[in-house]
From TrEMBL:
It comes from the Bacteria. Keywords: Membrane, Transmembrane, Transmembrane helix. This is Uncharacterized protein. The chain crosses the membrane at residues 12-30, 42-61.
Amino acid sequence: MSLIMLYVTNMLGYMLVALPFYIIGRIVFVKRMRSQVNLWRELVLGMFVLYMVGLASQTIIPQWSAGILAETGEFYFDVYLRSAQVNLIPFRTLNAYFFHTYTYVDN
């Protein structure tokens, strides 16, 4: 359960940053379309979009850290690319798991 909470807390930061952008973009879109606003639909759509942002933050967006070094007082910004952990090819992991990893099981 603690591992799940770790991912959820990491997702929340990205979701909170995306929230104002989503609200402003959605208001502009609805005003341009001049359509009826269904509050329930807007809430569900907003939750879905924010969940997708959070999910992308954990799977696609690289890990980064920023701050100020205590010794020198200089600003730093580091990006850690985890390209080995990103699975952009559909079913690549399942294919490797069933057909390549356990080939000695076959007759």
